Amino acid sequence: MWHIMCIRLVVKLFYLFYCLNFLIAMNT
C-alpha cells in the first residue's frame, strides 16, 4: 500500500505547486 501513499503525496505536492504558480501568475 506504500505506493498509493506515495502517489497521493506526489499529487498533493503537484497540486500545491500548481496553485503557487497560479497565485504568482495572478499577482504579476
Task: Summarize the structure in words.
With 28 residues, the chain is mainly α. It has one domain (1-28). 93% of the residues lie in helices and 0% in strands. The protein has 1 helix and no strands. The chain crosses the membrane at residues 7-26.
Please tell me how large the radius of gyration is: 12 Å
Helix content: over 70%
Strand content: under 5%
Given helix and strand content, the structural type is mainly alpha
Mean pLDDT: 93
Shape: rod-shaped
Taking the alpha carbons of the first and last residues, their distance comes to 41 Å
Transmembrane segments: 7-26
Keywords: Membrane, Transmembrane, Transmembrane helix
Please give the structural blueprint.
Elements: H1 2-27
